[in-house]
Amino acid sequence: xxxxxxxxxxxxxxxxxxxxxxxxxxxxxxxxxxxxxxxxxxxxxxxxxxxxxxxxxxxxxxxxxxxxxxxxxxxxxxxxxxxxxxxxxxxxxxxxxxxxxxxxxxxxxxxxxxxxxxxxx
Length: 121
Fold this sequence. Notes:
With 121 residues, this protein is an all-beta fold. The protein is 0% helix and 51% strand. The chain has strands spanning 3-7, 10-13, 18-25, 33-39, 46-52, 58-60, 68-73, 78-83, 92-99, 110-111, 115-120. The strands form two sheets. Strands 2, 4, 5, 6, 9, 10 and 11 form a seven-stranded mixed β-sheet that branches. The model has no long low-confidence stretch (mean pLDDT 95).
Protein backbone atom coordinates (compact mmCIF):
# COMPACT_ATOMS: atom_id res chain seq x y z
CA UNK A 1 0.00 0.00 0.00
CA UNK A 2 0.94 3.65 -0.24
CA UNK A 3 2.92 4.82 2.76
CA UNK A 4 4.40 8.18 3.68
CA UNK A 5 6.56 8.66 6.75
CA UNK A 6 7.70 12.07 8.00
CA UNK A 7 10.72 12.68 10.17
CA UNK A 8 12.96 15.53 11.28
CA UNK A 9 10.69 17.62 13.48
CA UNK A 10 11.83 19.08 16.75
CA UNK A 11 12.10 22.18 18.90
CA UNK A 12 14.13 25.20 17.76
CA UNK A 13 14.41 28.84 18.67
CA UNK A 14 13.19 31.55 16.33
CA UNK A 15 15.65 32.02 13.50
CA UNK A 16 16.75 28.41 13.56
CA UNK A 17 16.47 25.68 10.95
CA UNK A 18 15.05 22.20 10.55
CA UNK A 19 15.05 19.74 7.68
CA UNK A 20 12.00 17.50 7.34
CA UNK A 21 11.98 14.28 5.35
CA UNK A 22 9.11 12.37 3.75
CA UNK A 23 9.80 8.80 2.67
CA UNK A 24 7.28 7.51 0.12
CA UNK A 25 6.59 3.93 -0.87
CA UNK A 26 3.97 1.98 -2.79
CA UNK A 27 3.64 4.29 -5.81
CA UNK A 28 5.54 5.38 -8.87
CA UNK A 29 7.14 8.39 -7.29
CA UNK A 30 7.45 10.72 -10.29
CA UNK A 31 3.78 10.37 -11.31
CA UNK A 32 2.64 12.49 -8.38
CA UNK A 33 3.14 15.65 -6.42
CA UNK A 34 4.24 15.54 -2.81
CA UNK A 35 2.88 18.31 -0.64
CA UNK A 36 3.86 19.55 2.78
CA UNK A 37 1.00 20.73 4.97
CA UNK A 38 0.82 21.96 8.53
CA UNK A 39 -1.79 22.25 11.23
CA UNK A 40 -1.43 24.33 14.36
CA UNK A 41 -3.65 23.73 17.41
CA UNK A 42 -7.12 25.15 16.79
CA UNK A 43 -6.29 26.05 13.19
CA UNK A 44 -7.23 24.52 9.87
CA UNK A 45 -4.73 22.49 7.93
CA UNK A 46 -2.91 24.55 5.31
CA UNK A 47 -0.66 23.82 2.39
CA UNK A 48 2.96 24.89 2.74
CA UNK A 49 4.80 23.64 -0.33
CA UNK A 50 4.63 21.02 -3.02
CA UNK A 51 6.86 19.51 -5.65
CA UNK A 52 5.74 17.97 -8.93
CA UNK A 53 8.02 15.01 -9.26
CA UNK A 54 7.57 14.53 -13.01
CA UNK A 55 9.12 17.90 -13.86
CA UNK A 56 10.55 19.22 -10.59
CA UNK A 57 8.29 22.27 -10.42
CA UNK A 58 7.74 23.65 -6.94
CA UNK A 59 5.25 25.90 -5.25
CA UNK A 60 5.26 27.71 -1.92
CA UNK A 61 2.63 29.50 0.06
CA UNK A 62 3.44 33.17 0.53
CA UNK A 63 4.21 32.93 4.24
CA UNK A 64 7.19 30.61 3.69
CA UNK A 65 8.50 31.89 0.35
CA UNK A 66 12.20 32.62 0.61
CA UNK A 67 12.59 30.70 3.88
CA UNK A 68 11.61 27.12 2.99
CA UNK A 69 12.94 24.97 0.17
CA UNK A 70 11.36 21.75 -1.06
CA UNK A 71 13.44 19.18 -2.90
CA UNK A 72 13.31 15.53 -3.86
CA UNK A 73 15.66 12.61 -4.21
CA UNK A 74 13.91 10.42 -6.74
CA UNK A 75 16.34 7.54 -6.30
CA UNK A 76 15.33 7.35 -2.64
CA UNK A 77 11.65 8.25 -3.12
CA UNK A 78 12.13 10.95 -0.53
CA UNK A 79 11.05 14.59 -0.39
CA UNK A 80 12.65 17.15 1.90
CA UNK A 81 11.57 20.45 3.33
CA UNK A 82 14.44 22.66 4.43
CA UNK A 83 13.06 25.28 6.81
CA UNK A 84 15.24 28.28 7.59
CA UNK A 85 14.59 31.48 9.53
CA UNK A 86 11.86 29.76 11.48
CA UNK A 87 9.25 31.87 13.24
CA UNK A 88 6.96 31.03 16.16
CA UNK A 89 4.01 31.08 13.77
CA UNK A 90 5.58 28.13 11.94
CA UNK A 91 4.81 25.95 14.97
CA UNK A 92 2.55 23.10 13.86
CA UNK A 93 2.34 19.43 13.08
CA UNK A 94 3.77 19.03 9.60
CA UNK A 95 2.38 16.39 7.27
CA UNK A 96 3.47 15.18 3.89
CA UNK A 97 0.89 13.89 1.45
CA UNK A 98 0.65 12.43 -2.05
CA UNK A 99 -1.68 13.84 -4.66
CA UNK A 100 -1.95 15.19 -8.20
CA UNK A 101 -0.96 18.84 -7.72
CA UNK A 102 -1.44 21.99 -5.69
CA UNK A 103 -1.86 22.84 -2.03
CA UNK A 104 -5.57 22.09 -1.58
CA UNK A 105 -5.94 19.64 1.28
CA UNK A 106 -8.82 17.77 -0.33
CA UNK A 107 -6.77 16.91 -3.43
CA UNK A 108 -4.46 14.68 -1.42
CA UNK A 109 -5.50 11.13 -0.65
CA UNK A 110 -2.51 9.67 1.18
CA UNK A 111 -0.99 11.21 4.28
CA UNK A 112 1.84 10.59 6.66
CA UNK A 113 1.50 10.54 10.41
CA UNK A 114 2.92 14.02 10.96
CA UNK A 115 5.95 15.41 12.73
CA UNK A 116 5.88 18.17 15.33
CA UNK A 117 7.74 21.42 14.71
CA UNK A 118 7.93 23.85 17.62
CA UNK A 119 9.56 27.26 17.29
CA UNK A 120 10.07 29.18 20.51
CA UNK A 121 10.22 32.95 20.75
